[in-house]
Amino acid sequence: MLDLLLRDVRALTLNPAHPSAHTIGVLGGRIVGVDDEVAELPARHVVDGDGAIVTPGFSDAHNHMVWYGLSLAETDLSTVATPEQLYDIVAAEAAKLPADGWVIGSGYDDFALGGHPDRAALDRAGGGRPVWLKHRSAHMATVSTKILELTGVLDGSAVVPAGGAVERGADGEPTGLLAEQAQQLVDRLVKPYPVGELADAITRASAVYAAEGLTHVTEAGIGGGWIGHSPAEAAAYQIARARGDLNQRVELMPAREVLHEVDEAFGLDLGLRTGFGDEFLRIGPMKIFTDGALSSRTAAVTAPFCGHGGADDHGLLGDDPEVLRKAILAAHHGGWRVAAHAIGDRAIDLTLDIFEQAQRELPRPGVRHRIEHAAMTRPEHLARMAALDVVPVPQARFLYEIGDTIADAVGQERMPWVYRSRSFVDAGLPVVGSSDRPCVSAGAPLLGMQSLVERKTKSGAVASPDERVDAEQALRAFTTGAAYAAGQEHVRGRIDRGTYADLVLLDDDPTAVPDSKIGEIGVQATLVAGEAVHGADRFSFPG
């Protein structure tokens, strides 16, 4: 007897052998058949979809779930349009706090504000309190004088980590802007977060994700560095799962900083490495930063950024190249997959060189190392990625949210390299869907699909129209493509016998509506392992 028989649906299976279906059978959390294979079988629960569109569950191949969940409890600055509005918000928040309370905001956009917040103005608005405002890219933060004092920046005792920068004005004084690894100076004042607080953040994020159709996410960096929140961060996921609050399957990327020598190998304690875990929570690749970001002009580029930086403005590598090389090679030799954050073309050059060396030293066919973001991919990179079976994981939604900023930083002649899609298809590479949330203010997968198809910026410009893909390819990016990036294409990303019963019921067909309407499609229900994590009341699904 089936656990669930879902009938009267219009399913886009993404299975070439059976591309559409009207009936889906589920047993033991997996799909056991479609249409005539299951239509007459008895089931504990029979649900009529009333003609709803059904697709495989959506996957976000690169997000920051804990961080996004924490941001939901912080002051939202993503819609602030003027410096005056920002300072008013800071003042209003400060008024609610004791004299030593921290004002923490996230998501401000220097492009929209015409510059980063002014340190003196933050001091006035915050009444001398610690004020910590996180840039929308996550690669920068602006802080008040009190935090500069606490970190030791003002008295010169602070040691800025490699790959970080403390901005100084013409007078040599810190402006309050901390870039890249320099953010660890603030992190040391507040981390580690209590594991219970992180579990609560996961709970908040997971509920939002379920409502958007997400059934799988990859957490891009936990446990250490400026991207991690606690050495016990994985335990927060276990807690959320144990209490029934984790609505997605999750792959965790440990940060490079938490891997170390273990009995002549390189990895986590007990010898844990990529693949440890189960179908709901498992360890994925090692995450390592090789550079910064385009919006902060800290990505490592071969030719200088346009504008104020001058001929020496080539961004920042995440560490000394040989340090990065040693870490990636050690991870490769230790049995890890590697997810290298590489945005600028100079960082991609270095990353591919190291991956190539790693495969020469120890061939590991099918390992599928990844380049997270791959934001400035030169034409010659494409063939190298394909030859090495390296998976690029870009975020098309950045084109909408900061595409105009990127064009200002790199110039129109380099824009065809930015957040490619069609070129990946033509080179035989997968198109992988991801958001990098909360580095985007709106990270829903349907919005990501729309950006893959349209490639529009906020100003309405189309960024490199030749890089657009069609709506079906965009849907595949957030299903089969993301599954491929995790080496799980055999169990998820399709509606087929033996795959996980992770499904999304939609109001409309994302491959048939006008491109501009893809992001507006409503999510009726989301199922993980055949159980509703969103929309249970509407459809009376088991849950």
Describe the structure.
This protein has 543 residues and is of the alpha/beta class. The protein is 29% helix and 23% strand. The chain has helices spanning 65-71, 83-94, 110-113, 119-126, 145-151, 184-190, 195-211, 233-242, 321-333, 345-361, 379-388, 397-410, 422-426, 445-454, 471-485, 536-539; strands spanning 2-12, 20-27, 30-34, 43-56, 58-63, 75-76, 103-108, 131-135, 140-143, 164-168, 174-180, 214-222, 249-254, 260-262, 265-267, 281-283, 286-289, 338-342, 370-373, 391-393, 503-506, 523-528, 531-534. A hairpin with a 2-residue loop joins strand 2 (20-27) and strand 3. Helix 9 (321-333) crosses helix 10 (345-361), helix 10 packs parallel to helix 11 (379-388) and helix 12 (397-410) packs across helix 14 (445-454). The radius of gyration is 23 Å and the shape is globular.
How many helices? The count is 16
Distance between the termini: 18 Å
> Structural class of the secondary elements?
alpha/beta
Oligomer: single chain
General shape: globular
The radius of gyration computed from the alpha-carbon positions, rounded to a whole number of angstroms, is 23 Å
Let me know the average pLDDT.
95
| Main pleated-sheet profile | 7 strands, mixed
Helix share, percent: 25-40%
Query: Strand order of the main beta sheet, please?
Result: 3-2-1-4-21-22-23
In terms of DSSP E residues, the strand content is 15-25%
Low-confidence stretches: none
How many strand elements?
23
Summarize the structure.
With 543 residues, the protein is of the alpha/beta class. 29% of the residues lie in helices and 23% in strands.
